[in-house]
Amino acid sequence: MNTTNKFGRPYKSLTTDTLLARRQELLDMMPNPAHVIRASLITRSIKCGKPNCRCATGEGHKSLYLSSYYNGKTQLDSVPKSYQDKVSQCIKDYEEITTLLAELSCINLELFRRREIDL
């Protein structure tokens, strides 16, 4: 929802009822956070080292990894092909929740400024 104005308060011009309705829409759109993952999927090509393997002269063996960064360290976890779609959805859900929370926060801030929100 693009409702920016020149004062940097994107929701100021909307009615309280409109804000409350949009807030409920955002809550209804929120994916279930039970399995969200903050990470990225990456593909690596690795050469196995066997002299007669096809990877010795060409492209390496492709493997899928989950790259995550926590506590100052990047970690790679191998992802079996059978988990690829599920892990990808968990990452997408995390990104969607993050986007929805940002808009939800802006709406709640405007409602707070109007003293129309129970904290």
UniProtKB/TrEMBL annotation:
Q: List, for all copies, the residue spans of the domain called DUF6788.
A: 18-87
InterPro entries per the record? DUF6788
Q: Which domain of life is it from?
A: Bacteria
Q: Under what name is this protein listed?
A: DUF6788 domain-containing protein
Species, as recorded: Blautia celeris
